[in-house]
């Protein structure tokens, strides 16, 4: 069997598809113990990489989002007050959170 591609050389989608395949084969139970352990280790490696990439992407989106928000004047500054962003209601997708 050929060596798997190093995780850092896989695209996010490739890593995700490979992880899904590993999970499916482990759920089916069609692997020998040694193969299952190797697949599980590879799955952990893929999952760790995918989580790190998602955290990085989330941080980048947060930075970009913050850059689009109007800057507020420091407290005590003279002149017209900067418009305040609308407060987000305490609602989830299905209504109030409490």
From TrEMBL:
Reaction catalysis annotation: Exonucleolytic cleavage in either 5'- to 3'- or 3'- to 5'-direction to yield nucleoside 5'-phosphates
InterPro entries: Exonuc_VII_S, Exonuc_VII_ssu_sf
Biological process annotations from GO: DNA catabolic process
GO molecular function annotations of the record: exodeoxyribonuclease VII activity
Region named Disordered: 69-98
EC code: 3.1.11.6
GO terms under cellular component: cytosol; exodeoxyribonuclease VII complex
Domain of life: Bacteria
Subunit structure of this chain's protein: Heterooligomer composed of large and small subunits.
Recorded family membership: Belongs to the XseB family.
Name of this chain's protein: Exodeoxyribonuclease 7 small subunit
Gene: xseB
């Amino acid at each position: 069997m050929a060596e798997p591609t190093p995780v850092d050389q896989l695209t996010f989608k490739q890593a995700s598809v490979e992880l899904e395949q590993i999970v499916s084969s482990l759920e089916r139970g069609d692997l020998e113990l040694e193969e299952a352990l190797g697949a599980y280790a590879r799955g952990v490696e893929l999952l760790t990489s995918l989580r790190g990439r998602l955290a990085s992407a989330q941080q980048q989106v947060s930075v970009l989002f913050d850059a689009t928000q109007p800057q507020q004047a420091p407290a005590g500054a003279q002149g017209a007050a900067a418009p305040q962003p609308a407060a987000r209601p305490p609602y989830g997708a299905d209504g109030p959170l409490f």
